[in-house]
Amino acid sequence: MGVLLQDLGYAFRQLRKTPGFTATVLLTLALGIGANSAIFTLVNSVLLSSLPVADPQSLIRIGDRDDCCVNDGIREDGDMSLFSTETYYLFKKNLPEFEELAAMESGYGWRPLTVRRDGPQTVGKSVMGTFVSGNYFRVFGLNPAAGRLFANADDQPGAPFTAVMSYDTWKEDFGGDPSIVGGIFWMNTKPVTIIGVAPRGFYGDRISTQPPKYYLPLESMDKVLGAPYLHDPETQWAYIIGRVKPGVSLPAMQQKASTLLRQQLATLKIYEGPRDQAAVARGHVVLTPGGGGIQNMQDNYKDRLHLLTWVAALVLLVACANVANLMLVRGMGRSSEMSIRAALGARRSRIVRQLLTESVLLAGLGAVLGLGLSFLGARMLLALAFPGEQHVPINPAPSPMVVAFACGLALLTGILFGVAPAYLASRAQPADALRSKARTTTHRASYLQRGLVVLQAALSLVLLVGAGLFAQSLNKLQSTDLKLDATNRYIIHINPQAAGYATTQVEALYRTIEERFHSLPGVVKVSLATYTPMEENNWSTGIKVEGEPDINKGASFVKGTSEYFDSVGTRLVMGRNFTPLDTLSAPPVAVVNQEFVKQFFGGRNPIGHRFGFSQMGKDSAYEIVGVVDDTTYTSVYWKNHAMYFVPLTQRPAHEDEPIEKDLSMYAGAIVVQTAQPMPDMEKLALATLTAINPNLTIVKFQTFQQQINGRFTNERMIARLTSLFGGLALLLAAIGLYGVTAYTVVRRTPEIGVRMALGARRGRVIAMVMRGALMQALVGLVLGVPVVVLCVRYIKSQLYQITSVNLAVMAGAILILIVASCVAGIIPAKRAASIDPVQALRIE
User: Fold this and answer.
1) What does the alpha-carbon distance between residue 629 and residue 574 come to, in Å, rounded to a whole number?
2) pLDDT of 332
3) How high is the pLDDT of residue 704?
4) Partners of 557 in the beta sheet?
5) Contact at 8 Å (CB) between 730 and 817?
6) Which of 98, 124, 160, 179 is the least buried, fewest Cβ under 10 Å from its Cβ?
7) How far apart are CA 309 and CA 104, in angstroms?
């Protein structure tokens, strides 16, 4: 310990004597370690962390997919992760291997609640709420922050409506008021008693950009939410997580659960057909770890976070090469000191330990600065990944895991960039102390320095080309012709069901909404629809054309009012649009897109033909009256997207389901087109809806362009971060090249002086130095090109319509590196050309 403290004290003194060197190294390391720590903060929070619950390792989820949200069809591959209430109770009764088994709503994000506290002058808000089984909190081993959590009695038919409030909602919206517990709140116009507050830090069973503010029992879902599928055995809507008993064999339990599932599927009507029986045989479940909760966000972000981790690691490697170069330059300046120490009896191991202590100390100080930068970097990453979101349950502050990661990274980098300089310095011979120059080590250092510059240039090329490819991919995405028109268009998301409207009342409501919005000055078109083109939503069914064989294909559908196509800018190709006369009592009609015609009619004229739903044995539900363009819905990546559109209040011909249970009657959005931009549209929309019904609140307001831009958030984040990291690597590589070139000039000062004394012109000296600098960069480019070609094979799945290296991108990256190399080399070159031959010879 005494020797270590002595080494540390000496290292501090050496670093204090060279403030410029110390500051440069610390900044370089802080950027490298900070970038990696920032990425790891997100990786740890999104991919690695467990739910803040008791013993997360014993939690197991039944299912391995992020299916959402309500499904009444057949999974052809048989892999089930979404279940009906009946299946949940079947598992709960017949799988004693679980201590407890809880169910939770899969798609609460699509059905927000309108919540208002009881009392005069209170205003309703549209907020996230979710429905869970009565043992939900017990499965997770949680205790309330106030009041109590659910018991089994709260989740029984006929039980009083109750709810548990989230901790953040309690604190932020109600200031931690203890009277909240026992208070009455009106949720979707139903009185609900708040029985308790969830524990602090618990955001539900998954990471979400909009965590639930309220938890309600399953059995209240039909009455509060209006979900008729709660006890429908053919509708899958729930995720299931349970706590297994010690010593349970998961493979055996998985097989048992799959057998139970197949037995239950065989009893359902939708599996009666011969082809459907084969789907029953394929039915199975996959058990997955549940300690991290439902992995919807993890599945969405893991590929991009892994990519960013590799990119940040390459930047750190460039930083380490740069610092190693600086350490070599500094080590050569201390060669006489090391020779004297060796002459005085210092052992090689002692010299190596001293120099490694300095390296690790520098890396440790860089890690401290890097943690500060990582906090800012993590905040920037959150802003890029979740723009506009205010309650993402991810803390950008370094956690103990992140601190440990940074410390481990600092130790690794300290050894990585310190071992070569320490080894070379340890080879100093005592006789070198008597010489003016330590040439025995300088030559080796020169080769190593140049090798490090070559490595930096190669890695910088990889990062620059990667940044160029992702920027090109983003540009291709954003320039794609969506066949939509976002000019002066606004989307107002609503929830008539939460405002208390029954399905038999919505037709009159929609007429009123259209009339009120049309009366606003400047409004051109108004429509309502179940969902709008570029939101993350999709409703689909199997399609059977009347009089033709079932080809086992499906199509997505949207329900809208008469001005829907005009309001979103979709062009009519053939036939007619909807009209105000296409009401509930009129014959059901449909408009299809061109891809629908291609897939189901082979290009034949579809007007007048009828189609229905293959799984229901009906093929005359709608008559086709028009064809529209193949506008983009949900995602630009979704090609060959067959779609059909039906009037919002119409129902299929010969529909057996009562209208009271038909949730497709509810509009999810109003689309408004105006003659010119209207910055106050949100206020006008809120006032208009409130005048119709105070419970008819705005769930979300956005311009159509904002909705479209939101579909490219991940790609925009990757493009910006890879460009940032590529620029950082380029800067570090340029600094490294400058350092090596400058050091080479200093070392060759006598030689250059002799050359100039013998008549060498200034231009030839500059060319000589520049040639050496560019040669290192060119070698790095030659090595980097095949690495780039190899790397593109692994990232092309994340690129849009790019499968190989674009020559323009490659040429641009090479040109940028050559220019940077010229800039880095010109300053030492001019300095070399300014050497006074007399002084150079005197030095020699």
Assistant:
1) 9
2) 60
3) 95
4) 644
5) yes
6) 179
7) 33
